[in-house]
Amino acid sequence: MPVVEFVPGNKRIEVPFRTQLLDAARMAGVEIGTPCGGEGTCGKCVVTVLSGRVDSDSLGQLPAEMVADGQVLACRTRVLEEPVVVEIGEAVERLSLESHDEEATCLVRKELLPKDWDFDPLAVRWRLKIQLPRREDGLFDLERVTRAIRRDWGKLTIVYSLTAMRQVARALRAEDGLVTVTLIREPGQLRAIRVEPGDRTTGHHALAVDVGTTTVAAQLISLTHGKVLGTCSDYNAQIPCGQDVISRINFAKRSTGLQELQSRVLLTVNRLIREVCRNHSVDPSEICNAVISGNTVMTHLLLGLDPEYIRLDPYVPTVKEVGYLTASEVGIDIYPDSWIYFSPCVGSYVGGDITAGLLSTDLATDSEAISLFIDIGTNGEVVVGNCDFLMSCACSAGPAFEGGGVVCGMRAALGAIEKVTVDRETGSAQYSTIGGGKPKGICGSGMIDLLANLRLTGWIDPSGKLDRVRPNPLIEVDGRRAAYQIVPAAETAAGRPVFINEADIENILRAKAAIYSAAALMLNRVGLTFSDLAHVYIGGGFGRFLDLENAILIGLLPDLPREKFHYIGNSSLMGSYMVVVSQDYRQRQLDLAHRMTYLELNTDSSYMDEYTGALFFPHTDLDLFPSVRERMLRGNAKMPKILQV
Amino acid sequence: MPVVEFVPGNKRIEVPFRTQLLDAARMAGVEIGTPCGGEGTCGKCVVTVLSGRVDSDSLGQLPAEMVADGQVLACRTRVLEEPVVVEIGEAVERLSLESHDEEATCLVRKELLPKDWDFDPLAVRWRLKIQLPRREDGLFDLERVTRAIRRDWGKLTIVYSLTAMRQVARALRAEDGLVTVTLIREPGQLRAIRVEPGDRTTGHHALAVDVGTTTVAAQLISLTHGKVLGTCSDYNAQIPCGQDVISRINFAKRSTGLQELQSRVLLTVNRLIREVCRNHSVDPSEICNAVISGNTVMTHLLLGLDPEYIRLDPYVPTVKEVGYLTASEVGIDIYPDSWIYFSPCVGSYVGGDITAGLLSTDLATDSEAISLFIDIGTNGEVVVGNCDFLMSCACSAGPAFEGGGVVCGMRAALGAIEKVTVDRETGSAQYSTIGGGKPKGICGSGMIDLLANLRLTGWIDPSGKLDRVRPNPLIEVDGRRAAYQIVPAAETAAGRPVFINEADIENILRAKAAIYSAAALMLNRVGLTFSDLAHVYIGGGFGRFLDLENAILIGLLPDLPREKFHYIGNSSLMGSYMVVVSQDYRQRQLDLAHRMTYLELNTDSSYMDEYTGALFFPHTDLDLFPSVRERMLRGNAKMPKILQV
Predict the structure, then answer these.
(1) What was the ipTM of the complex prediction?
(2) Is the CB of A318 less than 8 angstroms away from the CB of B173?
């Protein structure tokens, strides 16, 4: 069998004739990010074949000059004759951790954030002075601990984990009965999961985790004061198994597919935990609680629950509220008896990320004003309601705004182009990157800017086709497909141009159409229109900025008075944080989950009509976007207003 | 280093010069039973050295003829020069499983047994017809299961184990919504631990387990009708780490001592489970509940809880009531999410075996008559009370009645001499064995018979010394120590004589004195005497029979009207069974544990006086035993009356 060697790293693997390079890499333990799931559409798995013979079908995806250089897509290339040596250099955006500066990213309106008096976490570390053992009263160790806890907490049932039982005898006798007990506040009872000698009330930590289809983020929280210490995010290691929830569900049907998906997402979560802990010198075993929010499919896969019936009519998942599970049961590498709390799910495609995300909106309050919440992710979710009703739906937007299905797309991470303007005359782009360094690719907010500006300057038409008529060296036509160069090779980090092609644009167009039409249809179902809304909340992994004017110009968001919009960033992560630090917010979330109804778009025939109408920049019906029409007429290319709440 | 080889089996091990043969065996994976913990007192670890040079100090324990044959005690022999070849033939009573016929061993008074209407087990397998998934109601799988359970069981909280969650999606869709759910009935909630498709209500099993210091017994119960299917028992594999609870606590202080003790007892329990399941063609994974009763130290060791403070003033253990622990947490090899329920403990040396054992006595009812419960084991426990008060204490009796510390002693297992008479003139013994085969050794009931008859016929004196004056070929005097041959070598299974020596007799004397004096002292403490008792219940591993007259004659039991006595056998196992099958009995047990007070004999100075007085057959104060005095005077050697209720 042919041998394939990957450099640098010199990992070698023997594989059958015609094995895909991507599979060979996986077998050799070389991780190559493939947001599209190896479908040949995202262009992320570029490698260079240094020697050996391969059969590649990369030309449609990569510029001719790259192919001439020996560059191929690993997912479109099969091994023919050994020895094949493959370089996985800088050109490959491998899975890489990203840690964020916390202070700047709280985008939530102040009045919706937990206040000091709400600080009331699910896990507490409680100092107790335990009466010393005495022969007279015949009280066992645990009885004395229970009495001391009840003195402070009232007559609750106290249960002990086996680990806590094993710790108690020595802990009680080490410092004259002064101990610190870690308590988990379950409904109706307290669970003691750890007993340590002395005062250990400091160094008390928890985690908020957002498990997205494409991106996973873990946030380390100090429970001493409820402060966020830091956040790390990364691509979900499940991506090679499929780019969206449907392809993951299909993958789970393979013989060990479910186990592989489960272990891959755990790998990502645990790596992020290690990383964020390392950054802040916290021992993961000091973390005694984690709140995990994910869509329904992600929640099921993380728990190893068969997701098949989520995809099959009548679309019924297994579990809404998960109950008490420990870190060791779930496979999360923190203190083994920690409670892993899962944000409750609502429907097949409206999960814990949404019930968490809503905590940053008026919908979690008793406001009568009607609000809309749009979560822009690989799975797009829309919720509308007020204190009287709450309705949700979901659509499959695809990973475009998170960098999937876009050759030079990437997450909102260091080196991502996050803002763009385009010169009307030359068609050249001006940009800025996250962190200010050389560009590595373009993230969602950059794509929105780019497409809005290309549209405004006339370099693309309403259907997303690039202008082939006006001469422009930045537009390269290759067969039926054209591409636009944003940054020349010389200016980029990898020495490769950052560009966008018409296939990329089509993916973005589809994503925005799916989201807009889901919102429009759902409002219609409850007898409302966009103009009835008091607030529109937008969540998503765009980093710190989302250009509102441009998002409206491409038709991602409705054309409403701008002050109604609130961009709230990764609201799933933010909501997880709120649940970690506040029992009141946890109750609010449960109330949200209980009163929310779920509209299944899969079975709604009008959805396709709405969607088709939205497959233009901004829409086939320009009456819906009066300000855009006016702006296009004026040819107004003024600098966009940045929405930063 | 010298090499030691064990035959048959040909296991070889290289060990340092002067390594003890017992340690060499342990290292080579050869298990040799040492009820005394390798103290050189039980004489159980006899092996034959076939070649090589050893340094042995076995002579005090073994008859000269055995030593001349090359037989040595493995615990008293060190390896000198290789190659040492050691035969561990029939002569060694290795750890061996014993399974019992169930029908004949229920010794409990009928009115105290659970009735048909009490059958109400802690774990149930419940058939449910679950509404099929429907798009309209938006109910997730678990919600529909919860609704169906509540329809039958009322508005309880229903929680699901992760395993059950993983099973539910497929199970609900396999047979049109017909499923069988295994439910654990915790206080205030139901825990669903298994969801299977179709009707699986048959084949539902549970375990009752008695974990004794010396002997462990596991009983398989069909929960279809609450019937006992079979029982297996074996020596506790902890024995090589110490013969009684104190020496085990000491062993636990070694660096990995606690872990070793825990894994050894789990080894025994799991082996017994495999065996009893194999005997009855039951898959251990079909067992969904186990009730374990052990003394406080055994309970702590099985859970890996540090037992040190049980032994240290003020004698305070960790846990009385263990709460919800699963089989996988505890390390019991049955269905992983099964509830392992531990019988509640009362004090340092009065544990779950006693709260279980009391269920077979009037003390678990609302009777006003005063009852005494004596559990005869390595740890002896005594409880006195009625519906108004309940007091308990414990004493260290040693393992003599279970075969430990007695050279030819053994458990009440196949081949054990269980009944003995002695001819007044010739001094020769007549005996019968359990199972009727050739004798292998003598069990507790046989020892009681033997000593009573030797005393009655004058072959031993009140202090337990053998008659050295009257000529008798069965009495062999070796230095200061004499031995009495019960069965000549030719008649035994192993071709070695079954005998008892004066050291053995002293161990039995100490055991009976410890128990009698604990009972006497406790009655005294509550202002009662033996004559105030309406019932005396005797528990212990004597097999099916305990000769009451003889037990009184040696002073193990008080001299009371015979009809007051009830021998109830292994009451800890019986009580565990009752808790498995009846929630009412479980509640009775908790009530017993809560209202029982505990008297610490370690700190009672009068105990030593009582004990010293009881170190005679039957007692220094013969006025306490009028019927014995009369019987001795009459020289009445009539056949003993067998007490079999």
Answers:
(1) 0.83
(2) no
